[in-house]
Amino acid sequence: MNEQRNDDEVRINENITAKQVRLIDANNENRGIVFLKQALAMAEEEGLDLIEISPQANPPVCKILDFGKYRYEQQKRKAEAKKNQKVIEIKELKLRPMIDTHDYEVKVKQATKFLEQGNKVKFTMRFKGRELSANDMGKQVLIKLVEDLENISKVDSEMKLEGKQMTMILSPQKA
């Protein structure tokens, strides 16, 4: 009978089901394997809770400490892990094959800013009407972009034509 449970559902005191537990006391000293009743008595004597720390171990590892303090430390640990997490976004820049030099430079400047922030940049080359039959003009613009941004980026996905648009993704180079 393998029981599924969330990390938030920690068994404490009488909710612990094992007959014997590996006990760690309030001073972080390993007391070895003891019967559950004996561990509960020790926790009650200290005025603290018996908390099942590692239920998958055989026998389960339990610790004597204040449950409120334990929950607070768990929340702090989760918040710290979340704070250190880096979310990478994909920023999209849309272009046309007949782009003017100034407009091109603005797009390069925007792409540089996005890449320096650690985000990926998706370039979308949109074709209208007869431009689609001469899509090598769009390819030339995208190749020039790769060359202009090669010192700060690498190609994540090559150019591919999907319908009336050609896409390419650049990601920042590792420092």
Describe the structure.
The chain has helices at 36-46, 67-83, 101-116, 136-148, and strands at 20-24, 30-35, 49-54, 61-65, 90-95, 120-126, 153-162, 165-172. It has 175 residues and is α/β, with parallel strands linked by helices. It folds into two domains: 13-81, Translation initiation factor 3 (IF-3), N-terminal domain (Ubiquitin-like (UB roll), Roll), CATH 3.10.20.80; 90-172, Translation initiation factor 3 (IF-3), C-terminal domain (Translation Initiation Factor IF3), CATH 3.30.110. Helix 3 links the parallel strand 5 and strand 6. It starts with 19 loop residues before the first strand and ends with a strand.
N-to-C terminal Cα separation, in Å?
A: 49 Å
Number of H/I helices = 4
**Mean of all residue-level pLDDT scores:** 86
Structural class of the secondary structure composition?
alpha/beta
Detail the poorly predicted runs: 1-7
Described by the principal axes of the CA atoms, the overall outline is rod-shaped
How would you summarize this macromolecular structure in one to three sentences?
The chain is α/β, with parallel strands linked by helices and 175 residues long.
